[in-house]
């Protein structure tokens, strides 16, 4: 494992820096937009731009990769991402910011994702190429830790300067630019990647209705929570340090409870675990309304447990879908799941922004609760339509971030006796 990390440390460091810059940028724009007097609806539209770019990148980036290679695309997109945040600092306009977020989403999708029939993450493609069957699971766990560490540090950096100034925008650009350095200096021969068999949305739904609808709903919840979290915090009167603590608590909750939730899903019917955590997330979201009126500590605890229940749901949906697939179908199915996540994610910030503008900041939590309740009700419905798969035939849960690539699916343990249809 040590030898393997020696060959991938540059890539892991680059990923950590990119995640850090992205986390800082999202919260920074949320705070700065609120300070500039942008309405909640406008901020929702601005923040949804990230996922518009994220989806469009899947159509354009693969052609560039085939033309000029992984390393050059990685460097070019990082440079473009750094430029987009500097443009946002120079022109304080919701129109400019929307396109800045769209460019950022385009670049990040390209940095994470290479595909022909779906999405492939550049970084994970390299990692997968350098790992063996015995080390892939452990390396993916390290990759998860690196991702969450980057997210946490990015939220903490919000305290380094005044969001109303230029410094934090420059810091984001510097972090993204530095992320390219270790990758470019140590990159070796880029790995070959096979084009996955295409799985349409209709095919995926037939294979796993709960996996498909669950991923769509998770996209709506996760994007709304993280993209509009800083806006919500400012609307209820939190300062910069308090917003940072609120968002950090959520990330830490996702880290702390991913594996306990996953272990439960390995021991019991995965649909029951998914149903439990989504209803739990809904209840905690409603409790957060009261907590936010009492103290920052109460709000932070609520954010910790809300994210601890909500964030593992993406991995649960992937694991549940993989339980009903053949091994050679998993990469293509994961690509389609990423598409569903992105479609749902576009609507999350926009809907929350409109609701907050109409009903006040606590509509933020009401929206999240409603999304999770609807997912739970659909899960209950699905349990009346099909018998559960025997626990001993389920694959092992592997924690994955919401931006995990289809390539990551091939790194995960596969279920014994996987079948092709549900």
Description:
With 422 residues, this protein is mainly alpha-helical. It has a single domain (2-409), classed as Growth Hormone, Chain: A, CATH 1.20.1250. The chain is built from 16 helices and no strands. The chain has helices at residues 2-35, 40-68, 70-90, 94-112, 122-129, 136-156, 167-186, 201-207, 209-235, 240-267, 270-292, 296-310, 312-322, 330-359, 363-385, 406-409. The longest helix is centred in the N-terminal third of the chain and has 34 residues, at 2-35. It is globular. The two termini are 36 Å apart.
Quickly count the helices: 16
Distance between the termini: 36 Å
Report the strand count.
0
Order of helices and strands: HHHHHHHHHHHHHHHH
Principal-axis shape equals globular
Poorly predicted parts: 114-127, 413-422
CATH topology: Growth Hormone, Chain: A
- Which second-level CATH architecture applies? Up-down Bundle
- Tell me the CATH superfamily: MFS general substrate transporter like domains
Task: Please report which band the strand proportion falls in: under 5%, 5-15%, 15-25%, 25-35%, 35-45% or over 45%.
Answer: under 5%
Summarize the structure.
Helix 11 runs antiparallel to helix 13. It contains 16 helices and no strands. It has a single domain, classed as MFS general substrate transporter like domains (Growth Hormone, Chain: A, Up-down Bundle), CATH 1.20.1250.20.
Write the layout of secondary structure elements.
Blueprint: H1 2-35, H2 40-68, H3 70-90, H4 94-112, H5 122-129, H6 136-156, H7 167-186, H8 201-207, H9 209-235, H10 240-267, H11 270-292, H12 296-310, H13 312-322, H14 330-359, H15 363-385, H16 406-409
